[in-house]
Amino acid sequence: MRHLITTDDLSVEEIKNLFNDAESYLDTPPPKLLQNRLIITLFFENSTRTRSSFEIAAKKLGADVVHLDVAKSSTKKGETLYDTAANLNAMGPDAIIVRHAQSGTPYQISRHVDCAIFNAGDGAHAHPSQALLDLFTIRRHFKGELEGKRIAIVGDIKNSRVANSNMRLLPRFGLKITLVAPPHFMPKTDFPSTTKLNDVLDEVDIIMSLRTQTERHSHPIYASLKDYASDYCITKEKIGKRDILLLHPGPVHRNIDIDDEMLADPRCKVLEQVKNGVAVRMAALKKLILANG
Description:
By secondary structure, the protein is α/β, with parallel strands linked by helices. The protein is 36% helix and 15% strand.
């Protein structure tokens, strides 16, 4: 494996080995395996969690990290994205971490560089490291017993790269997915689906709530997000005492995606996902960079 563009770039065995590394990084300080290695972060979309997580992961492994300020880069002066990639490649980085609003951009960049490319999110296409950390969080919670576990992915599925990556990854480990969304947020799919959250609450072990991707909507869908929340917000009242693991990739729209009470509930693992994300990204950086020499 040379790049991490989608979760399909990793075999099941490779993912299990990556998770073993991530598990060890949660328990003990890691060795500086990437000392004297250079990693460039190239984010054409805003990011807090993903960019910070990758940068902290890299620095924990001893790597040097350079962030390219896209707002001041030559792409704003008319340079093509691929010339930018070629120029960065000439500086000899060991990896470039890319986020872009256009699907397929990390793959296209990978054709112009010699180093590893990490897709940190491309359009509504893929977000592989997020799906990996989601699976890692689920796996830890259920102590490795994943076969037959049922998960509802709830919200703006059609516009979500997180949902897309999880829909490809989770079934490979035996999880059963049901999609829950209003019709205009539901993609064409072969997965079981419903427009009503109440239809699945007594059937699922996990709920993955998604942020409404308002920046990807060509026109307003709801007059108010509160209208959406009345049907799809994960509330303490709706969940009750059910033993359901609650996930969200962040950022959470409080009381739109998940209400305040559920965010404070021990069944909600949003902050654990953030912690696990650093460890999983450390394992992925180590694997690709050392494998590529």
